[in-house]
Design brief:
alpha+beta, elongated
Length: 288
């Protein structure tokens, strides 16, 4: 289970996302730890992400209880960029059920009651199937409840990327396309300008018998070197800057390979304008 909460540390309030682990079956051993250890007890221990600025041994206030930080995770943030805090499932239930004083007061005033009934804030749970379990039977059983649904990992990914984030993905794709077009135009102008500066040398090469394909190869190599240099610089800056972002950004090897292919295509296309101008140069131009 997961819920958004405010933690208090040394008088400062920070926003975090609390995740309940099915302790002792799941003590957080799968969490990427930078320092510390997984949960060793079922109460008042947390594993916190490094982005929250906590240290091993710190005690934080969460839902009016105090918890000790026993582990620091790396790169564990929610979809909104908030650092994750892992606690046992029993602690997570207590945290979600406990209301703030202001929430209780407003609830009493709205309902006209002395006490506010406790409502469940659980929206989803994660189920791990044992080897040999009948997945289809589980799906049918949950669907028969009428007020619940079950999604596989692939279905959750599709729901998140192709529905919830679809418009954002289209905006990012459009922005990327515009940047690629601008990159192609800038590279074409650079290669064309450098070709104009080298027209006397190109005419001299033609005068001594250089073939057009050799000149074509030189200009293409020049464009590809510019593109590969920019690609290497961009990747290096990305690895340096992305860890500072509030949200986790993963550089997938397939995405990097695809971007490298796009850069090479842009380099080849950008070289054509310079090649066209170089082919118009005549050997006798070097004597003028």
């Amino acid at each position: 289970m997961q819920s958004d909460q405010q933690i208090v540390h040394e008088g400062a309030r920070k926003r975090a996302t609390v995740v309940g682990l099915d302790y002792p079956t799941d003590a957080g051993g799968w969490v990427t730890l930078a320092r510390g250890r997984p949960l060793a007890t079922g109460r008042q221990e947390v594993i916190a992400d490094e982005s929250l600025g906590l240290a091993i041994g710190d005690r934080i206030e969460l839902a009016r209880d105090r918890y000790e930080v026993v582990g620091l995770a790396r790169g564990m943030v929610s979809a909104m960029g908030d650092g994750l805090i892992f606690v046992s499932i029993n602690d997570a239930l207590d945290i979600t059920r406990r209301k703030a004083s202001e929430e209780i007061r407003l609830g009493r005033a709205a309902a006209g009651l002395d006490e506010v009934p406790s409502d469940s804030k659980i929206a989803a749970i994660i189920v791990d199937l044992e080897p040999g379990a009948d997945k289809a039977a589980l799906v049918r059983a949950v669907a028969s409840w009428g007020d619940a649904n079950i999604l596989s990992t692939a279905e959750q990914r599709d729901l998140f990327l192709n529905q919830r984030l679809w418009r954002l993905r289209v905006q990012v794709l459009a922005f990327t396309a515009v940047l690629l077009v601008v990159t192609a135009v800038v590279m074409s102008l650079i290669v064309y300008t450098m070709t104009l500066e080298k027209l006397p040398q190109i005419s001299l090469l033609k005068l001594i018998g250089a073939r057009d394909r050799h000149i074509y190869g030189l200009i293409v190599q020049q464009a590809l070197m510019i593109g590969l240099g920019g690609y290497a610089l961009g990747v290096a800056v990305a690895y340096l800057v992305f860890p500072l972002f509030p949200r986790r950004i993963v550089l997938d090897p397939l995405d990097l390979a695809a971007m490298l292919g796009v850069v090479l295509v842009i380099g080849l296309a950008a070289a054509q304008l310079g090649v066209r101008r170089a082919m118009q140069a005549k050997p006798q131009d070097v004597l003028s």
